[in-house]
Amino acid sequence: MAYEVNGQVVEHDEEGYIVNLSDWSRELAEEIAKTENIEMTDEHWEVVNFLRDYYEEYQIAPAVRVLIKAIKKSMGPEKGNNKYMYELFPYGPAKQACKIAGLPKPTGCV
Amino acid sequence: MADGNNDIEQQIRDALDVPCLKPGAMEGLKPFVAAPEHQEKLGFPGELVPDWKEKALAKMKDLAEKNRAFQVYLDACVKCGACTDKCHYFLGTGDPKNMPVARQDLLRSVYRRYFTFAGKYFPWLVGARDLTEEVLEEWYSYYHQCSECRRCSVFCPYGIDTAEITMAAREILDHIGVGQKYSNEIIGKVKSVGNNLGLNPKALRATLEDLEEDIEDDTGISVRIPLDEKGADILLVTPSADFFAEPHIDGLIGYAKVFHETGASWTLSSYASEAANFGLFIGSYENMREIALRIRKAAEDLGVKRIIFGECGHAWRVAYSFLNTLAGPFDFLDQNYPIPQHILEYTWDAIQKGQLKLDKSRNDHLTLTYHDSCNVARASRMGDMPGGQFEIPRNVIKAVCNNFYEMDRDTIRESTLCCGGGGGLLTDDLMDLRIKGASPRMKALQQVTEDHGVTHMAAICAICKTQFSKVMPKYGYDMDSIVSVHQLVSNAIILTGQETEEDEQNEEEAA
Q: What's the ipTM?
């Protein structure tokens, strides 16, 4: 189970989350997004970048609410809401966006 | 009878309609198997052991000897058929192996072969069969199509509890090296980080501070959500989903507002930042105990007098029914309060004492119904009256909402239907099963939507909330049609000193 980017092989788990977080690159994110049927736009990148910054600071993805608040600040209320997040990432901003951002899957009752 | 069509719109008929049989419909469904690292953290072999057959039979013997109920359940079934149409996974999939009696028989047939006289000598007469690799595969598949909700046991004249058999089967599988990734990875995280999510103390603190900010922005009142505060009176143990997911987090805000208004001294713990106890789901006493002991240690370290549990179904079963056995005695806590207490008991008490200023009209945009969570309904109680686990949540909802209607009596209270994601099945690799298993509940909901215009369903379990927010869109509801009970409380509470829109209007008029 692996993605291929620029001739490099990047291992992922059964669900498509990359195994070594340091393998992540923008090109890889585009590749993962493709397998999720998502075409990365500036808005997608805004979310992915926020997730990565947050992860760097806290070693975990933010709560959906925290993400939405941050997006509201940077992109305005018409985009900083749950509905818009699901338009961007139909399988959920937490799981699908984390996968593209190269972060571990949030586990538990979520 | 439904016509067995998979098209969900066509299935929307009576919630409990028996489907056409579809033998083998769910055969081979197999959630991801735990990796060796997940297994070993829990004290299980990393992968299938070479002498798996002997080990499995030895474990079965051990369980039958130690757990009398398990042995009685295996021996007592008379094949009366009362349970056959009581499982939501059978109703949703039509697969006859999802009939509770058939699920039990997957294990019972092996038990008979090796541990009963008739099965040893005349296996063909008593439905006894050898333990083979195919049987093992079947166990793994169908014991991960049971959410341990115990609805079938309510209708069994002998009270046979399929959940116990499912738990035993998973325990046997774990002991020969075949665990389920979802549950076992999560239990490992509780042991290393303190919660299912893997939320570390720094991130937890940041999240709580963020929520405090939200409440203040929203109400103008500073409401605290304390973490690791030594000397607090109350330790709140809540599912970590309350720190992360929607609508759970709105429930957490509700708890905080109730504690604020009652002037309680309370705290969360980063060490015991999880109410859930997946040790129950895999039938592992040792793992369940280890998780429960974290709560005891947090209570002792923080020096609290009381322990209160947030909205989490199976956590309340473990807390109410087993906590004292697993981690007691709790003689260091204040004996004047229930040990442990449920947040709904606390809130209902505060409402009755008139400690909360509530404006029900703030929930007028919602028309509600209530989904009894299986583990609360059938494996616990609340308050000091029989049936309190049914009445108290409803009392609270009715105290904070004007519009409330019940679903069909056969689908609520002790007969409640599982959300379809309980018992360790709330994982993406079982999404098809989850959607199908939710269909009886969804039909019952659609009925009250048609009859009474119900728009939202309230629940008090983190699993139910996540499951419904994922599957409701498949049944024509928005994902936010599932709400936390304390989210409704939060909507209705007017905090002391909080200016309402009416106040503002009056001020404007006065000016």
A: 0.96
